[in-house]
């Protein structure tokens, strides 16, 4: 038993000696390997560093170091190039960042602050169009007064149509012959400017007009369209007009002229028309010699016309200056309108076509003289059905037919006109001054009309309401009429050559709420005219001040019945 214990103890001691010897040998070998590896790494670093001491500067900037590497004072021999770091799996453990030590004087720099969230890159400013001015000459227009330039105008418009706030330029000192053309939307960009500095001449070839067209230059379904400049639109209407007079004894030259006129269609075009457009401006230009109406706005809203000149010769037939229809918020000011000579050369008993019984026989006899058909000229401004919020001021009108609302209700139609102001207007040698005219058989209402500060000179009849309007030899007598209510006449002064005022209203729908203030009209004796006193029929209202001459025929108060109220419902 004793030997067994001693032998066992000896064996245990021997095992312990062997184990201790192995541990010391392992530690010695490990230290040698570390020293060799450290020495080789330092040698390699020194070799690569020769002549390339600026590598770290290039990467991190002068005087800066990689914030994720140990401080040089702590590990001077650790490579700073990431490509030289030991890689895991290649026999070299990956270096790890030691925790910051306290009190050792060697702390790692704090990590950089987090980057702000990425923002979308700034968009470059929208490149402006290199060409927003489209000169018709650049599209092939000749401007020689002979060559047909219609296609060039069409192509210039097509290009401008694609660019917002673009300009179509018609340059000065050139004459462009253009046939019927439509500058149309609705897919055009808004706010296009048509800069007219040259002259546009209507095409006179019968081939381009076919059986007849209603307009020559047309702008349709546009927003913010403007026409401005110092140029001229010449309709060359003499190619359509006839100068014949059946009572003229010398017709030889006229007949020869009419043979040439037969080539042109009977339908005559309006020179310049806007349809279905908003925010329309026409300024500065001149329109002359249209075959019919010079300037027309149909179904437009927000119209501004100013510093415009319209002119046609004395014997031009039915050449309205400005024609408004189904349009709202229209302003016309500082404009000169001369639409032919409306003076009648001689008094001729020519019936107007309306006939009634009883007292109106007197009206017929008087009207046969006053409203003798005058083929020359037409209204300076004509306001038709569907118009409201119309403001006309600082306008010179004459010669012509004056400023008219109507004719309304033709062919038994309904007509509505409201909120019209005509003020600060000069009229010279016009057939009428301010007029409201309606056809028999119509329906609807004219209301909220104000004529103020109208200066008339040699005007045949300055003030007219005519619910029996007829422009033919005969018109069928009918009962219904477009009602007229709420018409103010203020400060209408000057001279007349036939009659100061004429109110011919319907029996079925009398005129109501007519107000006369500051009316001072003096007769001017002209050899070919006969002077008449004021005339009233079924006209009701009030005299706010005495009139010169007295208009005592106006019935004070309101008409009996409820005819006017029923017409209010129609509009």
TrEMBL record:
Signal peptide: 1-28
One annotated GO biological process: cell wall organization
Compositional bias (Pro residues): 109-125
Keyword Cell wall biogenesis/degradation belongs to the record: yes
Region entry Disordered, spans: 27-129
Compartments reported by the entry: Secreted, Cell wall
GO-annotated molecular function: polygalacturonase activity
SUPFAM superfamilies (alphabetical): Pectin lyase-like
Main location: secreted
Keywords tagged on the record: Cell wall, Cell wall biogenesis/degradation, Glycosidase, Hydrolase, Secreted, Signal
KW Cell cycle (keyword) present: no
Entries under PANTHER family matching the protein: PTHR31375
Protein name in the entry: Polygalacturonase
Taxonomic source organism: Oryza glumipatula
